[in-house]
Design a protein that fits this description.
Two copies of one chain form a homodimer. With 288 residues, chain A is mainly β. Chain A has helices at residues 3-6, 18-22, 49-63, 207-213, 220-223; strands at residues 26-29, 32-37, 42-43, 46-47, 68-76, 83-94, 99-108, 114-125, 134-136, 171-175, 192-199, 232-239, 248-253, 256-258, 261-269, 275-284. In chain A, strand 3 (42-43) and strand 4 form a beta hairpin. In chain A, helix 3 (49-63) runs antiparallel to helix 4 (207-213). The first copy, chain A, is globular, with a radius of gyration of 18 Å. The relative contact order of chain A is 0.17. At the A-B interface, strand 5, strand 8, strand 9, strand 12 and strand 14 of A face strand 5, strand 8, strand 9, strand 12 and strand 14 of B. Strand 9 (134-136) of chain A pairs antiparallel with strand 14 of chain B, so a sheet runs across the interface.
Chain lengths: 288, 288
């Protein structure tokens, strides 16, 4: 059981947890959903992009005939703030095994006009309906046991790890010491970030929380010695299997920083050593 | 100079080539473009997904204030056929350094109703406006010299390499013998495909032709011993730099085939050893 979760008398369950409550959307009319974006998933003042993707993914799961995001691509347009938002969805195509949908998240300006924050295209299916065949050459990341990794609560004097924020209280995030150099003023120079990941209340992972997981680690840019903010331009996630219960292992790699942009490739592995999600994002580096 | 191009008295130029003519869109009204999809970019009877992406990318380049696709995500809905099509674009956001647009390609059913084939979300910018900094750990693929690789014209008795088709006449595609086992009935079992790539008329690469390049090789599934069709569900391309003149090297890798789906990760390198494009697609495997 995740260390952070052991503090809870009772582990939260899928459907009844902080994450589920904070991603809950209310159907205003067919295809249109209201939500109050929680301040609990912010880093500094920015609402986490993975949390926002999970909100959009949940609205699409309700709007489409299929329940699981097989591939979802998000383009981030303007910075979201905690507070009221509306998600407008469109069913682009409803097929037998796959359906495709579009969703946009809007917030409101001073005059109450809608401002688009994110636009998403996604194809959904039913993970439980897939054949069991697995032929993979992918290997789980080499990461030390969870009790040898470091989270916000482990830092000296209980001071949070630099870069952590409100979202840190809701995550069980234990970073591989091998990718923690940035937090100690000695970035490795390698574009790598690895961690054990779970939700702090012990809720197990599902396809929706995988959308949060791929964007929940500190940016690889920190290990490249960059300190600025790294806003996501576009993030695409492939959910490849329903995750088994227990903590996830996440490895993020950046190979090419050029022209002020970099890619972040994330792999998410479950406790059964199954590659459950792959993602890639294009992010912008504010140098200095 | 690419071998295939040397046959031409004069090399085609960017803006005046087969590829440019076959991706040319005609503005019907602001944001709406007509095109006659060429039969010259088909594999068996299917219009190549990269060619279609280039058509959509070209329409967006005209509709948006920026000219280069930095990141473009396409969801393939129904199979396109050669012939008339219309591209409808929407400017989602016009920013200073990036603009985001959406585009859909439609064709017509028997009753003349529009049927959507592909929907795309993309963020465009200006590659020439980016700073020159490059910090990469990515290395060009290990691939034999072009004259030691094999194309359709090199196969015994001039018989085309299995799987090649009309598009083969328009490409300078030379496959690494190390990933050609499938064509000889001895697939390697590794999800890898590598090739030298160019356009047959010698036209140099540009950001638009990179959208074609990432989807132009035989599917890695062939080297995994699968023989069926591998339709693309979603394809995302990041164009990272304007390619230098000369042939490209493309390496495609599949690490995870599971539940009847696989990912294809492509890297495209130019003659200056610059990583100019990265792509990932989720494709469906029709087993058997």
């Amino acid at each position: 059981m995740p260390e952070a979760a052991s503090a809870h008398a009772l582990r939260a369950r899928i459907g009844d947890s902080e994450f589920d409550r904070d991603t809950a959307v209310t159907r205003r009319e067919p295809g249109v959903y209201d939500i109050d974006l929680s301040a609990g998933w912010t880093i500094i003042n920015a609402v986490n992009g993975g949390y926002l993707l999970a909100v959009l993914g949940r609205a699409l799961a309700d709007a489409l005939p299929h329940c699981d995001p097989f591939t979802i691509s998000a383009h981030y347009l303007t910075a979201s703030r905690p507070g009221p938002a509306v998600v407008r969805t469109e069913t682009v195509r409803a097929g037998r095994t796959l359906s495709t949908g579009q969703a946009s998240l809007f917030q409101y300006d001073e005059e109450g006009h809608e401002v688009e924050r994110i636009r998403v295209l996604a194809s959904y299916g039913d993970l439980d309906g897939l054949p069991d065949d697995v032929r993979t050459t992918a290997l789980p990341p080499a990461i030390p046991p969870i009790d040898q990794c470091f989270g916000a609560s482990d830092s000296p004097d209980g001071a949070p790890v630099p870069g952590s924020s409100a979202i840190a209280d809701r995550l069980m995030l234990k970073l591989d010491p091998g990718t923690l150099g940035w937090a100690l003023g000695a970035p490795s120079g390698r574009g790598e970030m690895r961690a054990w990941f779970g939700l702090a209340d012990g809720r197990d992972a599902d396809p929706l929380s995988l959308l949060l997981a791929v964007d929940a680690l500190p940016p690889t840019a920190f290990e490249l010695g960059l300190t600025g903010w790294v806003p996501t331009v576009e993030l695409t996630v492939h959910v490849r299997a329903r995750p088994a219960p227990g903590p996830l292992r996440i490895a993020i790699t950046t190979r090419n920083l050029a022209g002020g942009f970099l890619e972040e490739d994330a792999e998410v592995w479950d406790s059964a050593d199954r590659l459950v999600a792959q993602s890639r994002q294009l992010a912008r580096v504010r140098l200095g």
